[in-house]
Design brief:
Helices cover 14% and strands 36% of the residues. It is mostly beta strands. The strands form 2 sheets. Strands 1, 2, 3, 4, 5, 6, 9, 10, 11, 12, 13 and 14 form a 12-stranded antiparallel beta sheet that branches. Strands 7-8 form a two-stranded antiparallel ribbon.
């Protein structure tokens, strides 16, 4: 059934439906970070980290830090029920449409979905919207809804415009979409099925920080010591394992995080 109207509960939920690298099921925060850490350590090569999608705000917040609500579409900045062309930027994000009628656009509409947010970002016509952070992120989230007519789609791209994760929202779905990634997120695309006939959209864009190992303990042995330092040195000047701040290079900043977390 179509999700009921009203505000989203913030009650603690012990598990979450998550999708990681094509696998889905009920998982805990520890399981999520463990799976991502295994991907990161595999074969000792510069890793391609998977992306995980969580359907619960509580679980997304539990495996990230520094959660901040950055953009809602109730701000006076957003003209309601007007076709907006080009790129629109607010609070560290750029929103741009690549489909619509009479041409590519975004459109803030008041169609009163759940979550207590009457205004959502959609398009006049079909939805095909890029959400691009000014600074690449490792954790991003928003509320999303499909329509009665078909699925909506969330695609995650890295800073090189490579697809690193995707999620399909079935028809008649309203849910929280929490994204965590070991590879810095360059932008997220939201699109829909038959959006020109019935609106779909997103709201309440949030950011946070995520680390696939959760600490400078790169080999997961419970200590930050010479073994972890060795991994940083082995991957120096690469985007591989040891890039703790996800700036694209293993360098002195990452070495500083190892030293700062040293346990011996």
């Amino acid at each position: 059934m179509w999700a009921p109207r009203g505000s989203r509960s913030r009650a603690k939920i012990p598990t979450s439906q998550a999708t990681i690298g094509g696998l889905s099921g009920s998982v805990t925060p520890m399981m999520i970070t463990s799976v991502l850490a295994v991907f990161a350590l595999a074969n000792g090569a510069p890793p391609v980290y998977p992306v995980a999608f969580l359907s619960s705000y509580e679980e997304w917040a539990a495996v990230t830090s520094g959660d901040v609500l950055k953009v809602t579409f109730e701000e006076p900045f957003w003209p309601v029920d007007q076709i907006l062309t080009g790129a629109w930027t607010l609070n560290g994000f750029t929103f741009q449409g690549f489909a619509g009628t009479p041409g590519p656009n975004i459109y803030v509409a008041n169609f009163d979905p759940p979550f207590g947010s009457p205004q959502w970002l959609t398009a006049n016509g079909d939805e095909d919207i890029n959400v691009t952070p000014t600074v690449p992120l490792t954790a991003l989230a928003f509320d999303a809804q499909s329509n009665n007519l078909g699925a909506a789609f969330v695609k995650v791209f890295d800073t090189g415009n490579n697809l690193i994760g995707s999620l399909t929202l079935p028809a008649r779905t309203v849910r929280f979409v929490g994204i965590i990634s070991g590879t810095p997120i360059g932008h997220v695309n939201f699109s829909s099925t038959l959006g020109a006939l019935q609106d779909t959209g997103i709201d309440n864009v949030r950011i946070a920080f995520f680390s696939p190992t959760g600490s400078p303990d790169l080999n997961g042995d419970g200590h930050v010591d010479g073994a972890d330092l060795g991994l940083v040195i082995a991957n120096w000047a690469t985007p591989g394992l040891g890039d703790l701040n996800f700036d694209g290079t293993v360098d002195g900043a990452d070495l500083g995080l190892i030293i700062g977390g040293w346990t011996g």
